[in-house]
Design a protein that fits this description.
The chain is α/β, with parallel strands linked by helices. It has 18 helices and 20 strands. The strands form three sheets. The chain has an eight-stranded mixed sheet, with helices on both faces. A seven-stranded antiparallel sheet has the order 14-15-16-18-19-20-17. Strands 9, 10, 11, 12 and 13 form a five-stranded antiparallel sheet that branches. α6 packs parallel to α8 and α8 packs across α11. The longest helix has 23 residues. The protein is elongated and about 100 Å long. Keywords: Membrane, NADP, Oxidoreductase, Transmembrane, Transmembrane helix.
Length: 661
Amino acid sequence: MATSYDATTTASELADHLSADIKGKVVLTTGPSPASIGAMFVESIARGLPALIILAGRSTTKLQQTAGAIAQAQPVVKVRLLHLDLGSLASVREAARELASWEDVPRIDVLVNNAGIMGTKFALSPEGVESQFTTNHLGHFLLTNLIIGKILKSDTPRVVNVSSDGHRLSPIRWADYNFQEGEIYNKWLAYGQSKTANMLMAVSLAEKLGSRGLLAFSLHPGVIISTSISGGLDNMDEDLAALKALDRMLGNAEGWRDFKVKTRQQGAATTVYAAFYPGLKESNGAYLQDCHVADPWTDTVKPWGTDKVEAERLWKLSEKLSMEWTVEAGLLAGGYGKSLQMCIQKPKTGDHYFHFVIYGENQLVPGNNTIRIPSVRMTMADDITHFRSIPWVSDLLNDPTFVTHPIPSRKIKASTEDSLFSTTLNSRSTISSCLLQYRILSSNATPLYRNAIPTNEVRIFCTLGSDLNGYPGILHGGIVATLLDEFMGLILSMSRAGGEPGMEGPVTAYLNTRFVRPVMTPGTVVVSGRIVEAKEERKWKIVGNIKDTSNKTSPAWPQYMPRISHATALLLSTATESFLKVELQMPALLILALALLLVCLSNMIGSYSSFAAAATFHLDSGIYFSGIGFEQPCFGNAGNCLERALGKGKPRGLKKNLGLI
């Protein structure tokens, strides 16, 4: 066949011509139901012997029919099915979690966002968004974000959005994408809005991830009457007449000319072209039709479908409507440079759920990847109830040699003074629960100061949230100074039995640490500390440990990350009298702060290397994508590195939403 392609080119012809580009690829296609363009696409590319075709859709029966057609024509091609309902964002998240669990599928070379509905009656998704906008755009937007880690594992990553020249019917209705909750709904305007969104999403992907090798395109397959998407129309003749009338009202040429109808084979050809044609690198983000890059001077291309400003506005709107945060970043602690992808579901009320996926060099690292971030608890009774629900902590709480004691700074006060849990730390995702215990000494032990508690060992349980992160999943070092200051004040307050004025606190003179791995967040840790030596009544040696899961580490992490487990410190007191008071309960609380400080140091060490994560952020309302390579040395925590990578482009919501900086 000729190497020039046009409206008459078929998908099978293109697949044969591009077989070398198809062979060995992993391709995921949404909406490949029988008699659809998606089905014709996957059946055609099977001729090129891809390594795997993933069929994603609502109906398992229909997916099996398409898989059967592929197996009959090309038995050697592997096919897997993925349940996906794009009309429900909850279903999209579940599909993404399932796909993430497929350890034998470490990458996706081509994602074809093909599924769609057209001209349907007004309906809202479970999330309250108009159904065509949700199914055709928002579901694909969220899916792409959630699986982008696997896509970027490919040497030749591509995302293809099947749009339509129906985008001519409407730009994005920024102030009224729901058509006044259906009161002024027009199904063709809604369809046009969703198809415009498909185009703008491709523009954004090219902008954000083009520097990492990702190619993204949108396309118009052509007018194909005999496809499953047209089956949703009530009356074909009446609907087409209404469409013609709308085009005339809008001044579109389609209102006066006949539609040029294609076969399904011809309609699927542009999808094959967008997914595999090697000569499109210089046209990243483009809108295609009839197997070429559409010319806005001769083809029907509306400027609202290709404008970069409009694309950015849509990205932010889509983040807001998806209520998701997604993160991809280079995991540099210990110099391993692995990749970590996280999603934090952000419901309006209740607990948060933190989902993470860790990638090794060539494969997904298995493990329990969902963690609940509990809502904030502010009373000791609530804290005890929370920690009793964690088996390994509950076992420690049952130890009769320790006594549970209230933490004064746990109580929120009108003033921020002497209150660890006011303002920024009064959050579901910072420190949601905290509990102090001290060891009981012999019955004849006496305190060194009136009203102080006779003990030489203290331990604290803390449930840490995601907003304390430095690197994603690692305790944020920037909070250390706050914790250290507050814990010193806390110990003084407890030891003075009411807070007598004029007391001076201890200072850290020497710190020695042994690293095993950083402290993970979100999660629960226990920090213990004990006095091991006293010298000259003003020098005290403290030994502390920070542990989780009763000394057991998470199965997904130990082989990749060092762990902090042991620290020693020498304390000096500026006044003997105050030191005697502080001595009794200082150890563990100080060690907690010191251990957290080590995490900060770990972040600094890890940051001084090639920061491979992306640096394009849009966190004001939700989704964050990494997209710009960053290979300059960067000192400070991960947030500082990201800030440097972003330069002046740092978003307003970065610090507020994730606490990275």
